[in-house]
Amino acid sequence: MNISSISNLAKTAVMSSKSTGSDKSSSASTSNATATLDNQKASLQKQLQQANSSGGDAKTRQAKINKIQNQLQTVVTEITQKQSSSSSSSSSPNIVDVKA
């Protein structure tokens, strides 16, 4: 191995460690976003239960239920997308180009 090869290997190692670090922060960010969405989902489910058990005009109550259900569906879709993108990015390997 000559000095140029060693230098290239060192650069590659640094790039690989930086890549791994960003993957970890990206994973944490996705986890935080998913946790926030899970909280929103729980809140909407509670609102939906309250709307179902509330009295008053049936038409108004149904409109409120429909609105909450639409919001809930949006949140569930976002959770699914985040989990899907998180699992696909975490399963992709770090590809390192080493020129010796």
Task: Describe the protein in words.
- With 100 residues, the protein is an all-alpha fold.
- The protein contains two helices and no strands.
- The N and C termini lie close together (8 Å).
Structural class: mainly alpha
Number of strands: 0
Sequence of secondary-structure elements: HH
The proportion of strand residues reads under 5%
Main sheet specs: none
Count of helical stretches: 2
- Separation of the first and last Cα atoms: 8 Å
Quick synopsis:
The protein is mostly helical. The protein has helices at residues 3-53, 58-91.
Please tag this protein with its features:
2 helices; disordered N terminus; mainly alpha; 100 residues
Task: Break the fold down into its secondary structure elements and pairings.
Blueprint: H1 3-53, H2 58-91
Helix pairs in contact: 1-2
